[in-house]
C-alpha cells in the first residue's frame, strides 16, 4: 500500500512541485521524484520546497521520493516536468522501469535541443508507441498554482481515456479548470514558441518601450505561432486558447516569467550569460529560440520576431537593432499571411 500512488511526478523544480501540490490537494496520493538526493531530503524534512516555492507547505498526500524505480512502480500515471533539454534523457532513464500500463504526460514546454523535434516525437522515439502520451500546456505560473490561486490549463494527447483521466485528476472546482483539447501538436508548439515571444516582450520593456510595443509583439507573436502551427499540422484555433494567446499574454506581461525577465535584462544591456545566471532557473526560450528559428527556416515560415530574438541571442545583435529591424520592415496588410 505504502508504495502505491495515483500519480508520479518526475522533476522536483518549481513546476513539478506546484503540480504535485495541486494533485495532492485534490486528494490524490502523489509521488514527487527528483534526481538530487539532498534536495529530496530537504523536501521530506521541510514538507515544503523552500528552494523553489518558499513558504508553501506540502499537502499530506505529497510524498517526495528519490528512487526512480520506486516512483515509477507506484503509479501508472507519470507526469514529467523537467526542462526540455533533459526530457529525452529522463525518459531513457525511466524506460526500463516503466510498468506495462504506464501512461506518460509532460508539462515541459520546449522542443528537443539540436533537432527541434516536438517532445511527442522524442517520447515516441525513446518509448515506442506502446504508451499513451499527453501534454499539459497553458498559462500557469508555478507559484500561483502552488498557492491555490485560480488557474486554467489545457490537456491533449494520443488517447482520449488518458486525457479524460488527467482532467479528472487535475481539475478542481475551487482552483483549477482543466480543458480537454484534441490538438496535441498545437499545445506543444504553443508552449515552446511563447517563450521566444516572451523574451522579445521583455527586451522591448527593458529598452524602455511601452505598452504599445509590448502588445504589438504579443499580437504579431501570435501570428508567428499560428503560421508555424499551420505548417506543422496544428489547428490554428488552438492558439486562441490557453496554450496560445493565454500563455503569450501571461509570460509577456508578468515578471514571474523567467523568459520575460531574461529579455528584460538583455534590453537593459546585460549579456546573455549574466542574465541567465541571475535568473538561476531554467529559461526555456534561450535554447528554444534556436530550435524554433531553425524549424521556421526549414518549413519556410516567416517569423520575424523569432528571427530578431535569435540574432540577439546567437549572433551578437542588440535589442535596439532588433527593434529597428522589426520597425523597418516593408509595409504590409495585417491579414496577409505569407509576408
Ligand atoms: N515554472 C513554471 O511556472 C512553469 C514551468 N513550465 C515548464 O516546466 C518545465 C520545468 O520547469 P521548472 O520546474 O519551472 O524549472 P526549474 O528550473 O524550477 O526546475 C527544474 C528542475 O528539473 C530538475 N532537473 C534538471 N535536470 C534533471 C535531470 N536530468 N533529471 C531530473 N531532474 C532534472 C532540476 O534539478 P536541479 O535543480 O538539481 O538541476 C530542477 O529540480 C520547463 O519546461 C518549463 O517551461 C511550464 C509551466 C509553468
Ligand atoms: O510557462 C510558464 C507559464 O505558463 C512559465 O514561464 P517562464 O518559463 O517564462 O517562467
Helix and strand pattern: EHEHEHEHEHEHEHEHHHHHHHH
Radius of gyration: 20 Å
- Write out the strand line-up for the largest beta sheet, numbering strands in chain order: 3-2-1-4-5-6-7-8
Number of helices: 15
- Assign the structural class, choosing from mainly alpha, mainly beta, alpha/beta, alpha+beta, or little secondary structure: alpha/beta
Global shape: globular
> How far apart, in Å, are the first and last alpha carbons?
60 Å
Task: Please summarize the sheet with the most strands.
Answer: 8 strands, mixed
Average per-residue pLDDT, rounded, comes to 97
Number of strands: 8
Proportion of beta-strand residues: 5-15%
Q: What share of residues is helical? A: 40-55%
What do you see in this structure?
With 339 residues, the protein is α/β, with parallel strands linked by helices. Helices cover 51% and strands 11% of the residues. It is built from 15 helices and 8 strands. It has an 8-stranded mixed sheet, sandwiched between helices. Strand 2 (30-33), helix 2 and strand 3 form a beta-alpha-beta unit. The longest helix is centred in the middle third of the chain and has 24 residues, at 184-207. It starts with 6 loop residues before the first strand and ends in a 12-residue tail after the last helix. The mean pLDDT is 97. 1,3-dihydroxyacetonephosphate is lined by residues 109, 139-141, 195, 198, 247, 250-251, 257-259, 284. Its EC number is 1.1.1.94. This is Glycerol-3-phosphate dehydrogenase [NAD(P)+].
